[in-house]
Amino acid sequence: MSASTVRGVAPAERRRRRTGSLLGLAAWLCGIAFFLPVAWMVLTSFHSETDAATNPPSVGAGLTLHGYREFFGAGTGVSPWPPLLNSLTASVASTLLVLVLAVPAAYALSIKPVRKWSDVLFFFLSTKMLPLVAGLLPVYLIAQNTRMLDNIWLLVILYTSMNLPIAVWMMRSFLAEVPVEMLEAASIDGAGLPTTLVRIVAPVALPGIAATALISFIFSWNELLFARVLTGIVAGTSPVFLTGFVTSQGLFLAKVCAAATVISLPVLAAGFAAQDKLVQGLSLGAVK
Amino acid sequence: MPTKSAETHNEPDGRGGTRRPSSAEHPRRDAGTARRAAGWARRAPLLPALVFLVVVTQLPFVATVVISFTRWNALAPDNKGFAAFDNYKAVFTDPAMRSAIWTTVLLTVTVVLVSLVLGLGLALLLDREFWGRGVVRTMLITPFLVVPVAAALLWKHALYNASYGLINGTLTWIWKLFGSADPPQPDWMTASPLAAVEVALIWQWTPFMMLILLAGLQSRPADAVEAARVDGASAFDVFRYLTLPHLRRYLELAALLGTIYVVQNFDAVFTITSGGLGTANLPYTIYQTFYQAHDYGRASAQGVVVVVCSLLVATFALRTVSSLLREEVTR
């Protein structure tokens, strides 16, 4: 803050402004501190392997795409495309399935509520509180007997069940924002269910539904435990690939950072896109 | 189900107009049939999701309970049979399992509490206007959006590594500034393995806590704060008597959701320490019993114990959420 803007302002006000800008500075420092590891990951991914593994760190070293070329399989013969494609299949397909199942359910719980709707809602939530790992063994055995192991569609089904409860909660809260008066007016005007849904419910609820889809996508993309146990060579997803990537080939820091960056990109993009609705979704719609 | 939610069932939900039965105009029998049909019409959209969830998540738990009473190791397929409570006895007398329970509690409590406090501080900082607030907010959210496995690898190799990680590299750099060629170079992951996992998780979860608490702060009625200021209340008084009580529900919610996710953490433990040096938590231990030791019976018993513990936490948790929901309903 320059002196000219401060002149003629009461001392108390001046002090308040000074603490204000100090707090702003503190916020900036915290932001940078939290962002630093990610920045370091991206910077290292553009360094050569020798520059990546120096002590003290070589911040200003020349940039190269070597790490990314290595990651995309140049010379090593290990292509990241199958795992990336598997992650994409699992995330997109399960998100679509979540939408197909959750939209009607949320409709039944908010716009035309069934009796005891809050009990149903709590049942959905309670499934989220049971550790997934405790149901993993039977799923593994069933998959083994039905020859579904190492099959990406098994993950699609499991990820759907993992995200469905959150999606129902989230969408219920978005659908609940549709004004009752508008629904009543539509019903007085004789609008049928399809018209009501398309003309009144959809415009209000669509941004929320899109955010729900993005969050479901993020959770599926991130999942490791199920993918690690239930997939292998054919259906391995990106997180599984990432863990195997390090152990099987020794450590190449720049390459690992390039891999981590590439695999995080879809989630970062989805997360920034859903930023505003992210909290509301993750807090199960309880925080507006 | 928590009893608190019970009173919400019969309350008007603000949509009374759409659910008022029209029985007055019809003879009673027709009305009954019609109401039943209408009831099913309301329930029908719910059924696919419910059936799917019961089949995919609840039935495996039933199977887990059944398997937990059998003697079943995949490496010895001939020696299979009814084990009664042997697996449970083994679980409760196993020091590794006890250590896993302790590790899980310690890990969860530390990560949730520290990230809650840090998140609160950051939310308070971000609640005021300052230049570049949007940029800072985005920078703070980023750790939460990095794929968990990638984040764990980043901490393990690029930051903690004793010979070329950023932390020790920075120490070398600082010591050099002061002309010393002998900086401390601790091996973070072997010196304090659990803390190494915790710091990485706190880094990922603080942004989440911050986002929830920031939403809470911004829903705070501004006029009450203004009135208190005019009456001469100090910033601390405003925080202690206005902000904190208002934030209570948001703090509870953030702690609850953080707990749900951190208790189940597998990625960080698996990637950073592979459960070594006393960092194996319950999910990792079950994974090991089942996937590496192939002891299906024991793994299932461990799973059942975890579920029972989770149910205890969940009952409390659901009550918290139920009070949030009731507020929304009676709004």
Automatic annotation (TrEMBL), chain A:
Tell me yes or no: is Transport among this UniProt entry's keywords. yes
Give a GO cellular-component term: plasma membrane
Keywords (alphabetical) are:
Cell membrane, Membrane, Transmembrane, Transmembrane helix, Transport
| Chief place where the protein resides | membrane
Bilayer-crossing regions: 21-43, 88-109, 121-140, 152-175, 196-219, 225-245, 252-274
Q: Name one GO biological process term.
A: transmembrane transport
* Transmembrane keyword on record: yes
Give the subcellular location.
Cell membrane
Membrane topology classification: Multi-pass membrane protein
ABC transmembrane type-1 domain location, by residue?
84-274
Which superkingdom heads the taxonomic lineage of this protein's source? Answer: Bacteria
State what protein this is by name: Mannitol ABC transporter permease
This protein's species is Streptomyces chrestomyceticus JCM 4735
From TrEMBL, chain B:
* Keyword Iron set for record: no
Supply the PROSITE patterns for this chain: ABC_TM1 (PS50928)
Q: Which CDD domains match?
A: TM_PBP2
Transmembrane recorded as keyword: yes
Basic and acidic residues compositional bias, start-end? 1-33
Q: Where is the ABC transmembrane type-1 domain?
A: 101-317
Which family does the similarity line name? Belongs to the binding-protein-dependent transport system permease family.
- Name this polypeptide is given: Sugar ABC transporter permease
